[in-house]
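The material for today's practical consists of a large collection of protein records. Getting from the letters to the tokens is the skill we practise here. To make this concrete, we reproduce a full record directly below:
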Amino acid sequence: MVFDLERSLIVRAVMYRFLALGFHEPGDALITFLKTEDEFLNLKEAAQELDQDRVDKRLSLALEQTHAAIQTEDWSLRDLKVEYSRLFLGPTPPLAPPYESVYDQDRPEEDRGTVQGPSASAMEAALAEENLELNLGRVDLYDHIAIELEFMYYLLGKSVENEAEINQEYVERANSFLKERLASWAPEFGEKVASKTENALYHNLGRLLAEFVRLDAEQQ
């Protein structure tokens, strides 16, 4: 059982790592990852393991379609940056704001749909507790989707950092963060990205995000 749990934590971390990279502002690291076949083999294995008890295999299908889009399209880094700005930054109102605050329905009605809500402050505190700092060169607010995905990757990584023993405290922290924070808005955000984008990569990344976060929350 220890091995099964450890493997489960590792494959979850693999998926969160990829999605975090996909929703950061595009750079050379993303291009390199997309062109590295071994990286997608690791993701494919992770998706298959996470999907093993599902008849429809929706996560594996979403990943396969993401990979197919990458193989059949030839985007430049500039193309990806232009679409990233259109979707998430502006200068016109972004089509899919990437901040938890925007999707938080527990806020006062007059504040809903705006940034810098309680989730941003909570994320800042969570990072500070782990002595982590936000790289303001990559994102501008603490509750950005890429930061929350990267935080999940961090927590799951800490849970298996010691090869001799799983750190249950970090497992519980990861699962709590997933259920209480990420799962409450990431699927909606992912579906919005998929419906608003004109780029096949972001369309499939949005679908993959929605499928994976829902599945991960269901299984914990």
Observations:
- The mean pLDDT is 89.
- Residues 2-23 form the longest helix (22 residues).
